[in-house]
Structure formats: C-alpha cells, structure tokens
# Entry
Amino acid sequence: MTGPTKLLFDTVWKSFGDRDVLTGLDLAVAEHEVVCLIGASGSGKSTLLRCANLLEPIDDGRILLDDEDISEPGLDENRIRRRLGIVFQSYNLFPHRDVLANVTLGPRRALRVGRSEAIERADELLARFGLADKRHAYPDQLSGGQQQRVAIVRALAMGPELMLLDEITSALDPELVGEVLDVVAELKDGGMTMLIATHEMAFAREIADRVCFLDGGRILEAGPPEQLLDEPGHARTQRFLDRVRRHRPA
Amino acid sequence: MSDAPPVRPAGPTRRARAERAQRRRATLIAGASTLVVGTVLVALVASAPGWDEVRESFFSRADFTAAWSDIAPAFWLNVRVFLTAEAFILVFALLLALARSSRSPVLFPLRVLAAVYVDLLRGIPVLLVLFLLGFGVPALRLEGVPNDPVFWATVALVMSYSAYVSEVYRAGIDSVHESQRAAARSLGLTSAQAMGYVVLPQAVRRVIPPLLNDFIALQKETALVGVLGPIEAARQAQIYSSREFNFTSYVAAAVLFLIVTIPLTRLTDWLLSRQRARVSGGRLA
# Structure
C-alpha cells in the first residue's frame, strides 16, 4: 500500500517567541500513506502542517520532500507550495470571488495554465465532489460543509503530490462533518498521501494508516489506529484519549 | 395533537400591529418636534434687528441670478481640478500604500521614503503646499516646467490628499485577515500575486466609503486654487461681492458646491449602510 518516504521531518524545532512549539520533532510520511496527528490544542499539530507548507519557517532541523530539503532558507517557496495542498480549519476561501474563480486562481496564476483548461479541470473536480451546481456561487452563499469541500477542491486543482489537512472539520456544525470526511475518504481511495491534524478520533480510526500522538512539541507515540487508540503504550496518551472520549466516544 | 400543518391566523400579526402603532407615534412626534424647532428658528432670525439688511445683502434674488451667471462658468474650473486630482490621487495613493505595505527587503528604501512622505504631507496645511509649489516652482524658471498656477494647484492637492488616501488604502489592506494571504501563498502564488488577486480587491471594496469621504473634502478644497490667482467659483464670488457690495454671490457659490457634494455624501452614506447590513448579515465581502 505505502511506498518510499514522501515527507520527512528531521529533528524540527520551532518556537514562537520563547514558547517552544515543536521540540526536535521526527516524523516520516510514506507515499500513499495517511497519517493522522492527534493531541491537545497547542500541542503543535497546526504548526507542523504550516511548517511543511513553508507558511512558517522552522528554527532548526530539516524537512525533506522527496529527499529535497525544503526547509533550506532562500529556496523558491512558491515552487514547493505548488506541490503541497493545504486545507485550513477556517476554509479561507476568497470571499470576493465565486467558487470557480477560487478554484482556478492557483492553476491560472501560479501554474500559468490556460483559462479554458483551468476551468475544465475545475469543473471536473467540482462535479466529482458534488459541487457542480455551485460553480458560480460566492463563498457566503454556501454552507460550512460546502465551503470546506470547495477549499479541498481548490487545493486539489493544483495537482498536489500531498495534502495537509488542518482540523478541517473543527469549524463545522456536527451534521456537516460527514460530507467533508467523505471527501477525504475518497482521496484516500485515490491513493493521495495525506497528513491530517484532527480531533475526530472515529475518523482517525477509520482513515489513518498510522496515528501519531503529539505532546510537548514532539511525537510521543505512533502506531496503527487500533493500537494507538485502544492500547496506547503511554500514560499521557491514555489520559488524552480519556479526556476526549468523555465527550465523544470513539 | 393533530398531524395537520400549523396554520397561521389570518390578518396582521400581533407584532406587526404593535410596530405599526409605534411607527405612527414616532412619525407624529418627529413632525411636531420639527415644526416647533423650525418655527422658533424662523421667528428668531426674522425678528433679529438686522434681518432686513441681511436678507437684502445675502439673499437678494436679483443678485443671486446675476452672480450665478458669473460663478457657474468659474465653477467648471473647480470641477476640472477635482476630477483630474482625483484620478491621480487614486493611483498615487495606492502606490504609496503598496510601498508601505511591502515586506521585501529590496524595497526597504522605498518603504522609508513613502513613510516619510506621508508623515510630511499630512503635517503641512494644504494651503502652504499650494503656496510653496504655486509660487516656488515657477520662480525657479526651469526649462520645460509648466508655470500654470492651475497645474501647480492640482499637483499640490494631489500631493496632500495622496498622503491621506494612502493611509485609507493601508487601513483596508491591514483589515484583510492574514489567513487570506496565507491561503493565497499556500496555492503557490507569489507575494505580489497574493496582494493583487486576493488582498487588494477585498481591501479596496472595504475602503470605498472612506475614500468617497475624502473626495467630498477634496471637492471643497478646490476653492483654494483661487489663492494662486485662477478665478474659480469662490474667488469669482468674492469678486462679485466686492464689486456689487452684496454677499449673495457667496450663497450662490455655496449652492454650486452643494449640488456636487450632497449627492456624493448621500452615495457614501448609502454604501456605508449597505456595507454594515452585509457585515451584520454575515456577508463580509
């Protein structure tokens, strides 16, 4: 199922001011692998994803994409970002453009794809994710679930080699979570490599090849979902899972 | 309990009836209060000892007509200066704002220059800028540099107002949430593309009402052009009044300015209220 290492975090350090967020973190994501990151708020899940997308520079260590050091200062960030798709918790669609323009902006301006080709590709993706009738809608006319699906399509339109999903269901009403997670499941079926920060333990169990528990800025424990979620080897992991399950059984 | 869908009782709802009654009462009170205030004001002015002379020297019908035919053509100069200055201000101020918002180290000198420029020009009264440029530059007698006072007056207005308007643009740029930039950059757009396609369009939309507000002020400031010599509306009004010993010409000039500024003011208010409705309705465009 999984192949060679696609993305590698090698002793990554990152701090904001004097607060250390990532403390020598190591993580390897193999090609076609789906890795879920769980952990308390502030444990560094989002920061990790933002660092991978070069939205945040790391302080020390290396991040490799296909053996290329993408954390090298002075590297062409735009070229790397075009290969990694990221979806945010708060959708971050462009409110002044309709769905089609949101989806085609990246391919047209960053990849210099022609207008008709970009539209054709966008329509294909929108249709695939049940959004064909929304192509001329503006973000504020869509439900949260639809907006998040558009955000996923927008990232996919760049033809990324890897997707980074940052708590993409956390801002959604409970009844809208399912439609977004279905999209992610479909991406997994298509063989997409994904690194997913999530609070949805049931979802992590269903979709992840591997679950990593982040604690204090590094990965305390990792393993297949059944093992990590049911028989964690670490007391801290157990405590975290107990806290989460008090509200949401999984 | 029955399975039939609930049926709303016929006729206006209790709330609609209450609101209608309240509206009627509010209109009545507003009308009565306006009537009282209006009557008191008219009585006060008309009973003033000097009212008859004031009416003759400020509100003379004959003088109004005569002054109007003098001033209206002169007002055309105000309109021309206003329109020309506005076009240049929109562009120049945007360049200033972009220079100040840039983060590239290469553009550091430009950023400092823009900041100094804005600080200086916001600190000097427009009238002084007008004098300095209008009298100073032509006095240099440089080859090929125009010495037309209208030209320099327009330049002075552009320089002064661009400093203010650039701050309006900048506030708009700052008001677009950082996450929009991040989303654009995450698609591999360059910093300039993110600004041009994502941040700026949203910023400009948000600052249209305050921009219009500055243009209403600019429209009035065109009266300053007269201090360099050109005969614009206010200057023409002054000439009329000193010739005929009657101040009605000033009222005529004021009416001309109002004809332009009131529609602009209304438009600004309308845009603002529409924006407010959008924001409170969840539409944050």
